Amino acid sequence: MTEQVMAAIDGSQFSEAVCDSAAWASQALGVPLTFLHVNDNHTAPEEQDLSGNLSLGAREHLMEELSRLDEERARVAQEQGRLMLQAAKERALEDGVAEAATRQRNGTLVETLEELQSEIRLLVLGKRGEGVDQASEHLGSNLERVIRTLHRPILMVPPAFTRPEKVMIAFDGSKTTRKGVEMLARSPLFEGVTVHVVIVGADLADNRSHLDWALETLRGAGHDAEGAIRPGEVEGTLHAYQEEQGIDMLVMGAYGHSRIRHLLVGSTTTDMLRRTRIPLLLLR
């Protein structure tokens, strides 16, 4: 199966940005685009014993009516999903995508994506789903589980899409973050984009050597690259640099045990994921 950009959509305020981001990524990478909607059959209301002291006939009638309502809810959910997928496809075509496929599945999002993982070049999804308070800073529980489960690059998007012009990669010189720089350097996704490499730590010889390597790698691949070494606490320092430089996409590696990489693999939701207001690309 050809690897593709896969965009997971639902009824949240992030769906339009997911569509636009996926359309951009599909065209930049030169790979097919597929929109995915999953009817989560694990979120139905818990069954309750509503029969009480009803007579046998009344109890059977009630159970039949409840069953009919469940079937109707499933049918409506299926139709809503179909309409969302059609709207997403039409939006992608307007964004310049030559062709977009759609898929509708029943189950959970995490299990479905894990099953489809071999087909995914890049997964695009919103910061929160339709079941989460959109005014909160909480991440959708699906996003956290997807990050821990999938071994594919994941682009998490805010409510509005902007084509990136300045990208920042958090770097610590380790083998895995060097792999991230190399992936970014050769990816057509960032052609023509200025790449900022930021090390959070002391301005020592080792960090300077790591930064020089990253900049040489990126510039050798044809990128306009800038770098900085900043002291301080990781999340606050990266956010400050982002604001100062007008960065419009953050790139991080989601593996390992360093201070930066631990942000994305710990057991709790991190400030970096919660607070970011720009797209965040997690490299695996």
UniProtKB/TrEMBL annotation:
Stored InterPro entries: Universal_stress_UspA, UspA
Gene3D superfamilies recorded: 3.40.50.12370
A Pfam cross-reference name: Usp
Location of the UspA domain: 1-158, 210-284
Entry similarity comment: Belongs to the universal stress protein A family.
The protein's name in its UniProt record: Universal stress protein
Organism: Vreelandella halophila
